[in-house]
């Protein structure tokens, strides 16, 4: 039997070491969703590791959090680039490729990305949005949901596309709207579910249990699809 065969490679009885996807996280501030991803990735069984946390602001508090956990950090300040967004993004791209980043997670990164950058990371960049997309793209999602009188709200993890907040949906968490809710109260409950949902969505993609195919997210089985939906138990 050839020494390179699968059977020979495993004849020692040892399980092959899992290859974890290398993740780059982009932040602009505290990065609470980044903290949730870091916590999940601290488990060696999680299929992804946070290899780089990068910000467009040197004073982003999330950089301190990441560094305290031994994660590499970097700053690419957008201001010196002025209106030259593509040069700024080339600098971001270079830092991530130098770090061997395979997947990118946006976690409160307050810069609109150009189609060139998005295209370079097509199918490999995730974002979390505080609404049940396709409803309430853009800003002020909680206020708008309350004004419309919806009974459920929530958050969505999706692949990033050149059009803001319309990328293929990976996972969603549903949060009931309570009597007496205001935007702040609703936002706080949705944020708790964001911290729960984002690691789960990343796990699905990094493990290969979900993937992008012809503009839609596919799941390997019913169990993976079920994990892509969270119903918050908040009555």
UniProtKB/TrEMBL annotation:
The keyword Transferase applies. Residues 21-202 form the Formyl transferase N-terminal domain. The record marks 165 as: Raises pKa of active site His. SUPFAM superfamilies: Formyltransferase. Pathway: Purine metabolism; IMP biosynthesis via de novo pathway; N(2)-formyl-N(1)-(5-phospho-D-ribosyl)glycinamide from N(1)-(5-phospho-D-ribosyl)glycinamide (10-formyl THF route): step 1/1. One of its GO terms (molecular function) is phosphoribosylglycinamide formyltransferase activity. It catalyses: N(1)-(5-phospho-beta-D-ribosyl)glycinamide + (6R)-10-formyltetrahydrofolate = N(2)-formyl-N(1)-(5-phospho-beta-D-ribosyl)glycinamide + (6S)-5,6,7,8-tetrahydrofolate + H(+). GO terms for biological process: 'de novo' IMP biosynthetic process. HAMAP family: PurN. Belongs to the GART family. Catalyzes the transfer of a formyl group from 10-formyltetrahydrofolate to 5-phospho-ribosyl-glycinamide (GAR), producing 5-phospho-ribosyl-N-formylglycinamide (FGAR) and tetrahydrofolate. This is Phosphoribosylglycinamide formyltransferase. It comes from Camelimonas lactis.
